[in-house]
Amino acid sequence: MVFVLDKDIQKGGLIIKHLVTVFGIIINLKVHRSVQNIINKYL
After folding, report:
1. Dmax of the chain from CA atoms?
2. Count of C-beta atoms within a 10 Å radius of residue 28
3. What keywords appear on the UniProt entry (predicted)?
4. 39: domain range?
5. Is 10 inside any structural domain?
6. Is residue 40 part of a domain?
7. Sorting pLDDT into bands at 50, 70 and 90, what band is 1?
8. Positive/negative CA dihedral, 15, 21, 24, 26
């Protein structure tokens, strides 16, 4: 029983890690785009 619970927790942790990674990529892309827009305006 404890082992199954532990596996579920590990699975949850992996899902959270993936979500964090995806959000990080999305945020980086948005920031990158904003920076590019600013650079384009001033160049």
Report:
1. 62
2. 10
3. Membrane, Transmembrane, Transmembrane helix
4. 15-43
5. no
6. yes
7. low
8. negative
CA 12 to CA 16: how far, in whole Å?
Answer: 6
What's at 5, amino acid-wise? Answer: L
pLDDT at position 2 is: 63
pTM of the model: 0.57
- Residue 26 within a domain: yes
Q: Which residue has the tokens 């384009």?
A: 40
Which H or E element spans position 34?
A: helix 2-42
Take residue 24 and report the two structure tokens written for it. 């990080």
pLDDT tens-digit map of 20-34: 999 999 999 999 999
